[in-house]
Every structure is written in structure tokens, then in C-alpha cells.
Amino acid sequence: MCITPSPHPSPLRGAREFILRCVAGVVAFVVRIMAVAFLALCFAGCKPRGYPEAKWLGPAGEGNCAATNGPRQIDLIILHTTETSAASARDIFKTAKRGVSAHYLVTTNGQVWQFVEDDRVAYHAGNLDFNRRSIGIELEGWADGRGEERNFAWQTEEQRDALVRLIGWLCDKHGIAKSRAHIIGHNQVPSTEASADGRPWWGGKSQHHDPGARWDWTELMRQLNRAPEFLKVVVQSKADILTMPNPDAPRICSAQPGDEFQAYAEHDGFALVVLKRPADAQPLKEAGNHHWDGWIAASAVRVLPAERRGAK
Ligand SMILES: [Zn+2]
Questions:
Q1: Which of 63, 118, 270, 293 pairs as cysteine with 245 (C-beta 3.0–4.6 A)?
Q2: CA 38 – ligand 1 centroid, Å
Q3: 98 falls within a domain
Q4: What is the residue range of 56's domain?
């Protein structure tokens, strides 16, 4: 009689295999959970830190922005116009070595796109010092109007509302004052070019004048709950009108005794006046109404009390 092994495992062996299978299943499950958690953490770490309502379309191409050593001190928001469609601007920012980008772009239909994280430096102002201390926002728009007919229909309510929300968030997040001394146009940035007497020209390296003389700063400040109060001032002594409330800022033009202006803000001993006169010519820019407003020493002007006004 021949004895052959039983084809059925013993009950003890079956139980051992069952336990091993269970342990293997639990281990595989734990490994899977850990992998998912790791990927989620990695994704969260890579996610850009910035305005939550923005659509992240970054990063900008290599050579169009730069990292910093540690957190940045941001005290300026600088507004631009793209001078091309939002899609074209996006393509330029995404192309490596174009040397240009912005943190945010606000389209005419009110979308906010982000290309550079707030704690990185975007190359938008044509002035490294101003790039390092600022957030750059491009408006899908044209400083002198679009096309031959100089169309300003790009300035939509949706765009302005989205811009106001973005600026409000940035000011709260980075501790930037909601003031025209801290929310400025590209046209206010000193150029790397200087006049014969050493004063810098304005508009950054290429002397840009965006967002343009038709950009309504007073409406923007009103929507930021900083509605300006207008005062009529008369110039007492010859003085320069400057791009920023700072004696070293670029000169836009000069003012003579007796000249009258509407003033709507004050900062550090300077008054911000509405300009409706040609700015000085610059090497890359002819004289013209490229500016909307500028700062004059408060000591050089006198307020005309009878002319207090509540509107533009
Ligand atoms: Zn610009």
C-alpha cells in the first residue's frame, strides 16, 4: 500500500497562510496610504503661495524672475498694461529668457492669473530695486488705447472689481498701505537712465508710461475704501513735480508760482496733484501727457480753502 501526501493542507497551515495574507494586505494598504499622503504633501509644498482666487499659470520661464534669500520686504504694488492680449502676455512670460514677467495678470473679463509666487522677484518694472520690493500686476490693456481708434473698452468693471479684490488681499497679506504712495504705476518707477543733472528719468529702463493717463486712479482708490478728498492748491514757489513722494524721485515736470492743481493725497511732506500738462521729454520718450499725477513738496503749495471739493 502506497501512502501519498494529502492534497489538502492541514487546518494549522491554512490558518497561517490566512494570517500572512491578511498581514500582507494591511502592509500594502498602509504603503498605499503613505504614498498618497506623500504625494499630497509634495503637491501642497509645490503649490504657489499667493492670491487664493488666482489661477496658477506659472512658473514663469527661466530667466524671467528670480528667487530671494528668505522672505521679501514688499511695500509696493506696481500696475502695468500688457499692450497685447492676455494670452500673448502669458506666452511671453512662459517663454524662457524673455527677461520679463509679472506676479499677476488681470484679464478684461476679470480673471486673475498668477505666474510668479509672491516671495519671488518678477522682472516687470525695469528697475531691480523696485522689482525686489514690489508685486507686479499686469492689466490686460493698452495705456494709449487699443488700435488705431485708441479704444479704451479694455477697462471693464469686471477687471477693476477683480483688481480691487486682488490689491485688497495683497495689502492685507503683505502689510502694504492702501495708499497712492504704495500702489503705483510703472510710469512712476525711476529709470536707469538719468538726466544731465543726475536725476533719473521715469518709467523703468525702457521709460514706459503704463497704465497710462486714462487710468482712473481716483476710482481705484475709492473702491479700495480710500476715497480721495480733492483740495485746490496754488503753487507758492517754483518746485518739481515728482513721480514719488521722495526728493530723489524722477521729475515729471516743474511748477511755477501761481500754478493751480487739484491735490488728493499727502505723504511724507508731499502732496499728490492731478497733472494735465505735458511731462518732460526723456531719451526714449517725447514730451506729452504720459502721466496722470505727481507729487509736489507740500511746503511749496497753499491750499485754497474756499475751493474744497468732494469730487474730481
Ligand atoms: Zn509696465
A1: 270
A2: 41
A3: yes
A4: 49-176
